[in-house]
Amino acid sequence: MSVKLGVAPIAWSxxxxxxxxxxxxxxxxxxxxxxxxxxxxxxxxxxxxxSSELLPKLNEFNLQLCSGWYGANxxxxxxxxxxxxxxxxxxxxxxxxxxxxxxxEVSDSIQGDSNRKLSTRPQMQNDxxxxxxxxxSELGKYLEDQGMPLGYHHHMGTVIESQKDTERLLDNTxxxxxxxxxxxxxxxAQGDSKNILSDYSERLIHMHCKDIRKNVLENSLxxxxxxxxxxxxxxxxxxxxxxxxxxxxxxxxxxxNYSGWLVVEAEQDPKKSNPFEYAKKGYKYLSETLxxxxxxxxx
Length: 299
Hints:
The radius of gyration is 18 Å and the shape is globular. The two termini are 14 Å apart. The chain is an alpha/beta fold. The chain contains twelve helices and eleven strands. The protein has a single domain (2-298), classed as TIM Barrel, CATH 3.20.20.150. Helix 5 (126-145) links the parallel strand 4 and strand 5 (150-153).
């Protein structure tokens, strides 16, 4: 078993709050990601959307494209409409040989609304669940046939947020719908990543390694903050700087023989948490923890 370590650009520049890292160049982000030790980076808002422009940038900094976010509106769109909406990113990811789509349903999401408490997030009723699972299974089959698997990302403030939501999605869709497990979002939703990894390892295709500051999490839940409010308070951080025990997770990955990307991702205010320093901290912790689990890292 061997894994690859990547990083998300959101620590340098936040696409949802452009005032955070808005002046940070793509070149600085890529250079620092590479210098921190990562061999992959996910796509972000400042990245070129055409492979003819992106591939030279990736090559310049010795990086691979290790996926990227796609915000879907499949609850409201037909499958055919969503297929059309996804084409530009699909072509880019295929050209750059990304491993998968990080796919999340954002219809009616409250993740970007600072006035909406997390307790008011959207939810689907039984009939819509059945229809949605059918639609995403069809889209998952289409993307698998295109050689670009759909890795569903559960996310705070959306219709698929909790461990129960995630399990329901996986239990009621075909095997073409894979999983992007985000350890930080799972804990924030008071779920257990160890259970997900143990029970659904055959569906895991991608993993976001995000840590949680326990005291901020407890306060965020107690105060029922908005997602944006919790993030600005510093609920997220890199692995090794929070309360998640990654050794127990990596032990399961080794047992299940997972070979894929582990991507460090932590939405933080770059003025408070220097992206380069935190990227190095996350890389060091993951490298040491994987070594202790006898998991090889492809460098």
